[in-house]
Amino acid sequence: MTNLKTTTDRIQTYQEFWPFYLKEHSKKATRNWHYVGSTIGFICLILFFVTFQARFILLGLIAGYACAWFSHFTIEKNRPATFKYPLWSFASDWKMWFLWVTGGLNKELKKHQIEQ
Asked: Which residue ranges traverse the bilayer (predicted)?
């Protein structure tokens, strides 16, 4: 069983953070909103490399965070981890998205005993 930190404890390693991140995204609807935002962000990144227009980077970040934060405030009813751990949260969002795209997320959720 994974030992998750409470919100008052400061997580020290990414190994500790990842299960915490998954727990903060325990509801499928929350994860779905993250996938929408990350996919829009990914498309915007591709558009940036095709057009070299910086506005696509900004648009991708805004869309990604708007979808994610909406889901935390309305569905998960928690505070986005990005407020306390911005870099690890950003990396974990992409890790979660990649695992979802490749079909590995359910195994990871089960490993950390997070209901699906």
From this structure: 33-50, 56-75
Residues making up the chain, counted from first to last = 116
Please report, in tens digits, the pLDDT of each residue of the chain (116 residues total): 344 445 557 899 999 999 999 999 999 999 999 999 999 999 999 999 999 999 999 999 999 999 999 999 999 999 999 999 999 999 999 999 999 999 999 999 999 999 87
On whether residue 14 sits in a domain, the answer given is no
The encoded tokens of residue 8 equal 């008052």
Would you say 34 and 71 are in contact if contact means Cβ atoms under 8 Å apart?
yes
User: Residue 59 is part of which domain span?
Assistant: 29-111
**How far, in Å, CA of 106 to CA of 12, rounded?**
25
Which residues, other chains included, contact 36 with Cβ-Cβ below 8 Å and sequence gap of 6+? 67
What does the alpha-carbon distance between residue 98 and residue 86 come to, in Å, rounded to a whole number? 18
Number of domains into which the chain is organized: 1
Between CA 52 and CA 93 the distance in angstroms is 24
Global pTM value: 0.88
